[in-house]
Amino acid sequence: MLKRFFVVFTALCTFVAPMRADEGMLIPLLIKAFESDMQARGMKLTAEQIYSVNQASLKDAILQFGGGCTAELVSNQGLLLTNHHCGYSQIQSHSSLEHDYLKNGFWAQEKKEELANPGLTAMRIVRIEDVTALVLNNASGKNDQAVLNQNIVNLVKKAVEGTHYEAEVKAFDYGNAYYLMVKEVFKDIRFVGTPPNSIGKFGGDTDNWVWPRHTGDFSVFRIYVGKDNKPAPYSADNIPYTPIQYLNISFKERKEGDFTMVYGFPGVTEQHVVSEYLKFIMEQERPARIAMRDESLEAIGKGMKASDLVRIQYSAKQASIANAWKKWIGQVEGLKNLDGIAVKQSYETNYKSQAATKPEWKKYADALDSLNQWIKMNADKEFRYAMGVEYFAVGPEFFKLMKASNDLFNGDWEKSPDLFEAEKTKLMASARTFFKNYNAQVDQEIFAALTARYQKEKSAYIKNWNQVNVLELTKEIYASSMFTDSTRFLKFIQPYSLKNYKKVAKDPGYQFYQTFYPIFVQEVVPAFRQCQAKITALMQVYVEGKYAMFPQEKHWPDANSTLRITYGQLEGSTPVDGMAYTEHTTLDGMIAKNATGNPDFELLPRMLELAKSKNYGPYGQDGELWVCFTGSNHTTGGNSGSPVLDENGYLMGLNFDRSWESTMSDYLFDPNRCRNIVVDIRYVLWVMDIYAGAKHLVDEMTLMKE
Ligand code: ARG
Ligand code: GLU
Fold first, then answer.
1. How far apart are CA 619 and CA 526, in angstroms?
2. Hey, which residues are catalytic here?
3. Ligand 2 pocket mutation, candidates 327, 635, 664, 674, criterion most atoms within 8 A of CB
4. CB distance 411 to 423 below 8 Å
5. What is the mean pLDDT of residues 452-469?
6. Residue 497's pLDDT is what?
C-alpha cells in the first residue's frame, strides 16, 4: 500500500514539474556526478555498473564501429548490432547482381557463412583517464605545443607498454582538458545478416532526418578473435569473441516517460561557436555546399533510376552524399526558426557583462571580441576550403583514382626499381575495385556540373580557372582520359614500365587535376589550417571563461568521437505550434506509407502478407508492433547504432537518427523539440525471427521480460 502511495505521489510530482530533457554528452569517467540525478529519473543502475575499470560494466559491451558509428554486443558469442546504414558499405560490397543483398537481405544460417570485411574494425574502450595535468606538465602554457606533443607521445607509449592495446590522448574543450583513451581494437568483424533495403532503409531519403519514421535501421555482425580471445587479423581459424559484457534485451512493454540512456560515440558538436560563425555557416557555407550536392544527387539519382547496376554501384555513395545534404538543409531551417544568431548574440552580451565584473576576466571578453572579428575577416578561407572538399573529395569520382595513382606516377623509381612492380600491382587492384562502382556517364554529369559551379562560386580565386571551358574539357576528359574508363586504364597500366614512366603527363584528366588540385593542397588547405589554429586558441580562452564565470551552469565538452552518455526519456514532442508528434510508430503506419506509392516506401510481398495477418509473434504490444520511438536524448552523428538502454541497462533499441526539427542541435539544443529516433529492438527481433527466419540469432540473446 505504502509502495502504491509512493508511486502515485512520484507520478504527481512528475506531473507538476515535468522533467526536462537535458542537453549534454557526458564523459563516462565522470558519470558518478550524475548518478543521483539519473536515479531520480528512474534509473536503477549505479555509476559503477555503467563505467568501471575494476569490473565488467556496460561500457565493455559498446564499440566504436568502423570509425564512424557505434555498435553493441548482444550475446556471449560476440554478436554485434549496429545500424543498417552503418554496415551499408559492407552490405554493398558483398552485393552483386547475382547476390543482391541490398534488395533481398542476407542471413548467414551458420557461422561458416558469415562474411569477412577487410579493413573493418570495432573498438572497445579499456579505460579513460584525465591526463590534463600530465599533458601540461612543464609547458609554458596551454599552447606550448612542442612540450604538449612530447608529453602526449610519452603518455601513449606508457599506456600501451606490455599490452595489445592502442591508446590516444584527446583534447577536450579546445585544449582546456585532455583525456587518455586506452583501446582494444578488434580486426576480424564478420557480416552476419541484414534485412533488405525495403526494411533497413525504408523511407529512403524522403524520411531521412524525419519523424514519424518506420525504418528497420539495423544490421548484424560478429567479432572474431584469436584462440586467446584477443584481437587478431582475419583468419579462418579465428573464433567468436567471448565478451567481458554483453547487453540483455529489454523485452517488455514501453510507455512515454520511461527512462532512456544512450551510450555511444557521438562525432562532432559545436555548441560554443560564436554568432559570426553561426552566421557564416547559415548564410554562406551551408547553402553553397547544399547547392554542390544538389547537382551530384541529381546526376546519381538519374543513373540509379535507369539501371540496376548503377543502383548497386552508387547506393552507398548516394546515401552518404544525401545524408549530410539533407541534414544541412534541416539545420539551416532550424537555426533560422530558433533565431540562432540572435540567441548567440544575447548570450555573448551577457557573457561580456559578466566579464566586466572582474579585471581578471577581461581576457574572456577580449577573446570573444577577437573571435567575432577574426571570423568576419577570415571566413573566406574556410569557405574556400569547404568548397575544395566538396569538389575534390566528394565530387567527381575519377579524382579518387587519380589520388590512388599518385605514388606510381610520381615516385622516384630510378632509386628503387624493385618496388615499382609491387606498386603497379597494387594500383591495378585498386583500379579494379574503383571501376566496379563507377559509371562514366554519371561521373561525367557530376564533373560538368560541379566544375561549372566550383568555377562560379567565390572559389574562383584560382589563376586561369575562368579560362577553362567546362563543356569542352568535360568532353575531352571523358572521351580520352584513362582515369575515366577501365579499359583505357588497364590498357595503359599493364604494359607500363620504368622506361615510359611519366608518359601519363599527356592525359587530359591528369593534366587538369595536376593543375588545380595542388593549388588546393598548397594554398587553400594551409590558409584554412592557420585560420583554424588561431580560432582554436581564442576558443580555448572563450570556453575557459564559460567554466570560470558561470560555475553554476552545466558544462560538458563538445562531442569528439569519444565515448559519451546522454540520458532522457521515451518522449514525443511538439516541434512547432499546433503540431504534436507521438512517441512511437507501428507496422500499420509503415503499411500506410507503402500505400502512397512513393518508391522510397516500397515493400516486398512478404512484409505485406505478415502485416496483413498481424503475425507479431511475441514481439507486439497492445495489438501493435512498435517499429520506432523517439527519446529526449542529446545525440549526434556517430551515435548511429548506439544502444538506447532502459532503467536496468537493457537494450530497448538502436539509435539511428534525429527528427527534422532537431538537426540544429549540434549548434543549439532545444529540449522542447530535440528528439533522437530509435528502432525498437522488438521490431529488430521480429524481422530476424518472423520475417527472415533467422531465429537462431534471437536465441543467442537474453530477453528480459521485467
Ligand atoms: N540520418 C541518419 C544519419 O545521419 C541516417 C542516414 C542513413 N539513411 C539514409 N537514407 N541516407 O546517419
Ligand atoms: N544517423 C546518424 C549517424 O550516422 C545519427 C543521427 C544524428 O546525427 O543524430 O550517426
1. 55
2. 85, 217, 640
3. 635
4. yes
5. 68
6. 87
Q: Which ligand is nearest to the CA of 320?
A: 1
Atom 9 in ligand 2: which residue has the minimum CA distance? 636
Q: Write the DSSP symbol of residue 687.
A: I
Q: What is the DSSP letter of 397?
A: T
Q: Is 701 helix (H, G, I), strand (E, B) or coil?
A: coil
Of 693, 2, 637, 543, the C-alpha closest to 328 is 637
First CA to last CA across the chain, in angstroms?
Answer: 21
Kindly report the pTM of this predicted structure. Answer: 0.91
For the CA atoms of 453, 454, 457, 461, the dihedral, rounded to the nearest 10 degrees, stands at -150
Phi (first) and psi of residue 629, to 5 degrees = -145, 165
Residue type, 512: F
Write the pLDDT tens digit of every residue in 579-605. 999 999 999 999 999 988 888 999 999
How much distance in Å is there from the Cα of 153 to the middle of ligand 2? 32
Phi (first) and psi of residue 516, to 5 degrees: -100, -35
Question: From atom 5 of ligand 1, which residue's Cα is the shortest distance away?
Answer: 657
The residue contributing the CA closest to ligand 1 atom 2 is 657
Cα torsion 566, 567, 568, 569: sign: positive
Q: Of 7, 20, 83, nearest to 674 (Cα)? A: 20
Ligand at minimal distance from the CA of 262 is 2
Fold of 1-121+187-262+560-653+669-706: Thrombin, subunit H (2.40.10)
Specify the ligand 2 atom closest to the Cα of 636. Answer: 9
* Number of C-beta neighbours around residue 109 at 10 A: 11
DSSP one-letter string for 100-169: -HHHH-EE-SSGGGPBP-TT--EEEEEEEEE-HHHHHTT-SSTT-HHHHHHHHHHHHHHHHTTSS-EEEE
Q: Quick one: which atom of ligand 1 is closest to the CA of 204?
A: 10
**How many C-alpha atoms does 81 have within 13 Å on its Cβ side?**
34
The set of protein residues with a Cβ atom below 6 angstroms from ligand 1 is: 85, 201, 204-205, 208-209, 319, 322-323, 637, 640, 656-657
Point out the ligand nearest to the CA of residue 639: 2
pLDDT in tens, 214-245: 999 999 999 999 999 999 999 999 999 999 99
Give the separation between CA 60 and CA 57, rounded to whole angstroms: 6
The answer on pLDDT for 336 being more than 50 is yes
| Domain ranges, ordered by start, for the chain | 1-121+187-262+560-653+669-706, 275-540
Write out pLDDT tens, residues 470-517.
899 999 999 999 999 999 999 999 999 888 777 888 999 999 998 889
CA atoms within 13 A on the CB side of 19: 27
Residue 657 C-alpha to ligand 1 middle, in angstroms?
7
- Which cell is 445 given? 554529369
Taking CA atoms only, the protein residue closest to ligand 1 atom 3 is: 657
